[in-house]
Amino acid sequence: MRVRLLRIGVVGAVVLTAAAGVAAASTVANAATKPNRWTVVPPASPSAGTALAAVGGPSSNLWAVGSVSTGPAVRPLVEHNTGSGWKMSTLAASGLSGGTLRGVAVLSTHDVWAVGSIGTNPLALHFDGSKWTVTPLAPNPAGEQAGGLLFAVAAVNANDVWAVGSRPTTDGPGALVQHWNGHAWSFVAAPSQPPTDFNQLTGLAVVNANDIWAVGARGDDFNEPFVEHWNGTAWQVVSVPEPPQADPDNPQDVGLTAVTAVTATNVWAVGEAGLIEHFDGQAWKIVSAPRAPGDTTGFGTRWTAVSARGATDIWAVGRFGITPLSLHWNGSSWKLVTVPGGGGLAGVVATRSGGTTAVGATGTTPRALIVHNQH
Q1: 0.90 exceeded by the pTM?
Q2: Which among 144, 323, 329, 343 could disulfide-bond with 363, CB atoms 3.0 to 4.6 Å apart, if both were Cys?
Q3: Domains along the sequence of the chain with CATH
Q4: Residue 199 in 3-state DSSP?
């Protein structure tokens, strides 16, 4: 069986709890009256070699994470916005060389988690209101290879935090799940789904402590959708539909990348090849959505992040080549909303108030990209 190498890509995953994800009716009404257009916002780190992969938090406490490369060296990048513009957040001057961040979860001004990888190992950082600290993760089970990477982190509360990604196995990358109980991280078993050459989780969404979704990709020569659900006791694989291939002899990647939950019966996942799926409490179904202009096959559109403000106000972002993309759900259909500039978007958060913020990087010479929509 072919061994598939760990993929270290830029994937954004924004997570909302049910309470945070469902906005008041007045908030939704106010958002509907605001202009639905994106504007570029100056990042704190506009230099070449910077990229942002995820964003989270309320409008008064937004955090964005990613990486900055200087020649062959790479290190984590963290930016913070309390409402008066983006500013750099200081990380340890040493010990994080080779690190990059891909996911962020914001519980409060003094409780923020960021995850990613450093070298070939998973990485978790915690902010206590004054400083960032590396928090040791649990090792992989005895007898298994060390290493891995984390793509997404989500919190039920300060003592119930989850992170997902991938780890090396004898077949290839397998699902990695870690849990924080308020004192330490522990490894939590998550089943694989054939084909097992490649199982990777990149998105998390929390409804409550006993209802958590993780999505990603599985496969051998091409990606297929991969979904797991936590019922309070164990992670279980959940069957989801796979879009038909235009040419079965030349299959294209159709994996999932991110997920958001409005309620237990209203969960959305997005991914490669313009794939969007919805869970209504009974089953997952594919939902049609417009593809990027110029995407004649439909397989070039890639959604990388999704965030719900409410059942009738959901945003997905991504890219088509070096064109950033955004998509808005109004309760009945998905509609494209033009994003200025070039590059791609990797993370998005729709806050209760203060509009929607998306992050990523510009195209040919990567530089951190932040855009904001009042809607």
Answers
A1: yes
A2: 343
A3: 18-373 (2.130.10.150)
A4: strand
